[in-house]
Amino acid sequence: MSSSNETLTQRDQLQLGLNRFRLHIKSTLRQMQGEFNLTIPNRDLLVSGDETDEEYVENFEFIVYNWERILQEEMNNELNRRVLNSSPLAELEFWHERSIRITSILEQMKKDDVMKIIRVLTNIDSPSLSGFNNIKLQLQSYLLEATDNYKFLLTIDRHLKILQMEKSFQTIIHMLPNLMQGLKTIW
Questions:
Q1: Are residues 76 and 146 located together in one domain of the fold?
Q2: What does the angle CA 107 – CA 109 – CA 113 come to, to the nearest 5 degrees?
Q3: Which of 33, 70, 105, 150 could crosslink 95 through cysteines, CB 3.0-4.6 Å?
Q4: What pLDDT band is residue 47 in, cutting at 50, 70 and 90?
């Protein structure tokens, strides 16, 4: 009977691992398809233009203000997301997904076209960058929070899986001190 329970647990763990892998693949595909994208309405502006030309600078400022609005909206959407399932493993997955989504947004802000516009506006000390830079700092802070939460919860992931899938009460009882030690470390 012990062998049967062990096989069941291994099968459950494998299925859980496959489900998590599937979710990561879906998330990566969404990112690759560009669920979020900082757009540049007119790429010709990037090629030809002079920083002393007022219209050229105004176009860039308009683009940055538009990005600021889009980024603020995306950040608010992200902060309003909640864990759908109240299980500890769902919490772990939530922080991992948040980390991935925020990283994706920050990577958009590092694209060559975006950086060129930012450089031009930085060179002329444009006030249009203050909101954009504030949002970037907030996103970096949220990324740090999400990454830290994920890393800390990952330290007790094995115990949480046992707690969720184990059928034997004795196994759970033996695992609890290790789980509590992990929680103390996090706390």
A1: yes
A2: 110
A3: 150
A4: low
